[in-house]
């Protein structure tokens, strides 16, 4: 896009916002009426100039707090303070006010410094140090692009440059943001910027884990995060963020793998992103069904797909502590899934993920050998398949993606169409079995209840009743019992065996 078209596109996009968003229109009119300066800044301008869509709209004003309170009074907009350090307020419109369904979030912050130029100088990168004054916005869209640091020319040159030598000292999290923007927006990190990042990387140690988590999530949210992670790894940044993963480096595996544990984990994530882009290559006609589950949010804006990526990276974290070599020189990792589940859960807790997310990643690591075992069987048993699908679609779909990605990564450069055929064939048969035999049973009530077992077998309340109910539920799910009488008969036989 040439320069003239870039500015025209920016003007049209701002006009669209002002005219079609009830929230933004009300904010601009309020600023004009009360005589307060209001500037559109940052990522929205950058992305629009690049011809990209943006769902983040950021404003600054020297009277941000007053504007926000007036807007809340007049329109019913809810206010949420999302950054105490910078005083950033998220504007949450009431139902019916914001007509833009694709608008993601609108934030309003106080002006940093005595002027908009001072504010822009304190930002992270020059490509984000751009502003348009909306309090002076005219109906015909006439405007001046405020660009004190040459951000527009850097956007056109594809160059990521710090606003000042102090940019990283002021907020070391910008180190991660630099790598993310370089990858997601195809910017080049110039030598002085990259050198400064390497010098300042230890500053990440003083950043709150929640902020680091959110930036890592943004990296994993991209469709091709592996190149970003590899650069972070080469520059020794991941070593600071994920010290628990360090033992995975240079931890050699068996003949099935051609890489050490850490490099293999990166390769599995790379394979996963290929399958996520084209899920039908792994799951065939069931791809859309699986994708719906991966798109589900677990906490906040974080989806099951994002946490799957995180889990894939940590999938083999337990291997180094469980590595043994037998008398024949063969390498084993017995129990690594149990040790790994504990380590992965602790790491997720350190990053302040929610309990649901911690449990999801821990279960992903703990249960992944189920699919490995299934694939190794010459004849897959109904019992083994039923137990995999008993985990529920929230877990078995991610496990299938994990296994498929691990299989592809282990094959390495040899993963040609012929190599992937057996994998797709087996998974297709497993899913046929699930949809024909098991899915119709989901939500079925138990054949018997606890008080019925107690009356029939003369049992008192206690763990034995719970154990019987759990076993009967598994037998019902596997199709081995289907009537109340069969359930009672099995319960009586089980009780006799246990008393034995």
Walkthrough of the structure:
With 500 residues, the protein is of the alpha+beta class. It folds into four domains: 3-157, 2-Layer Sandwich (Beta Polymerase, domain 2); 159-241, Hydrophobic Seed Protein, CATH 1.10.110; 243-441, Hypothetical protein af1432; 450-499, no CATH class. The protein has 25 helices and 13 strands. It has helices spanning 3-20, 22-34, 43-49, 64-75, 116-121, 151-157, 167-170, 174-184, 191-200, 209-221, 226-234, 238-241, 261-277, 280-283, 287-294, 304-314, 319-322, 336-350, 355-376, 382-390, 393-411, 417-438, 450-457, 463-477, 484-499, and strands spanning 39-41, 56-61, 78-83, 88-92, 105-110, 131-133, 145-146, 159-160, 188-189, 297-299, 302-303, 324-325, 331-332. The strands form four sheets. The chain has a seven-stranded mixed beta sheet. A two-stranded parallel ribbon has the order 8-9. It has a two-stranded antiparallel ribbon with strand order 10-11. Helix 8 packs across helix 11 (226-234) and helix 19 (355-376) crosses helix 21 (393-411). It is globular. The termini are far apart.
């Amino acid at each position: 896009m040439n320069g003239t078209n870039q500015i025209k596109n920016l003007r049209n996009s701002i006009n669209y916002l002002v005219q079609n968003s009830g929230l933004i229109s009300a904010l601009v009119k309020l600023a004009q009426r009360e005589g307060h300066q209001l500037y559109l800044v940052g990522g929205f301008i950058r992305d629009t100039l690049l011809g990209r869509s943006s769902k983040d709209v950021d404003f600054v004003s020297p009277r941000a707090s007053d504007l926000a309170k007036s807007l809340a009074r007049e329109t019913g907009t809810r206010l949420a303070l999302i950054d105490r350090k910078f005083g950033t307020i998220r504007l949450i419109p009431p139902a019916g006010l914001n007509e833009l369904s694709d608008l993601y979030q609108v934030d309003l912050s106080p002006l940093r410094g005595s002027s908009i130029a001072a504010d822009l100088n304190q930002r992270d990168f020059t490509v984000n140090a751009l502003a348009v004054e909306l309090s002076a916005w005219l109906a015909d869209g006439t405007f001046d692009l405020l660009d004190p640091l040459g951000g527009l020319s850097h956007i056109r040159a594809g160059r990521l440059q710090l606003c000042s030598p102090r940019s990283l000292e002021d907020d070391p999290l910008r180190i991660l943001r630099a790598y993310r923007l370089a990858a997601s927006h195809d910017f080049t990190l110039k030598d002085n910027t990259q050198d400064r990042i390497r010098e300042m990387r230890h500053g990440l140690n003083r950043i709150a884990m929640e902020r680091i988590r959110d930036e890592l999530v943004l990296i994993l949210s991209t469709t091709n995060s592996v190149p970003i992670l590899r650069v972070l790894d080469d520059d020794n940044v991941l070593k600071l963020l994920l010290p628990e993963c360090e033992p995975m480096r240079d931890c050699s595996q068996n003949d099935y793998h051609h890489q050490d544990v850490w490099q293999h984990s990166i390769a599995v994530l790379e394979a996963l992103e290929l399958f996520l882009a084209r899920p039908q290559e792994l799951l065939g006609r069931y791809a859309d069904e699986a994708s719906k589950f991966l798109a589900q949010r677990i906490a906040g804006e974080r989806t099951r797909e994002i946490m799957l990526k995180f889990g894939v990276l940590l999938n083999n974290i337990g291997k180094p502590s469980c590595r043994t070599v037998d008398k024949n020189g063969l390498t084993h990792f017995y129990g690594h899934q149990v040790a790994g589940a504990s380590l992965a859960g602790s790491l997720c807790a350190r990053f302040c993920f929610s309990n649901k997310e911690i449990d999801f990643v821990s279960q992903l690591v703990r249960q992944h050998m189920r699919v490995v075992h299934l694939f190794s069987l010459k004849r897959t048993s109904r019992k083994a398949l039923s137990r995999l699908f008993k985990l529920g679609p929230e877990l078995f779909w991610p496990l299938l993606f994990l296994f498929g990605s691990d299989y592809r990564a282990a094959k390495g450069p040899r993963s040609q169409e012929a190599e992937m055929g057996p994998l797709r064939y087996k998974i297709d048969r497993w899913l046929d079995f699930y949809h024909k035999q098991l899915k119709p049973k989901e939500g079925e009530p138990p054949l018997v209840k606890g008080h019925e077992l107690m009356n029939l077998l003369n049992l008192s309340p206690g763990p034995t009743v719970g154990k019987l109910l759990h076993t009967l539920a598994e037998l019902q799910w596997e199709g081995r019992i289907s009537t109340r009488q069969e359930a009672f008969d099995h319960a009586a036989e089980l009780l006799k065996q246990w008393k034995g």
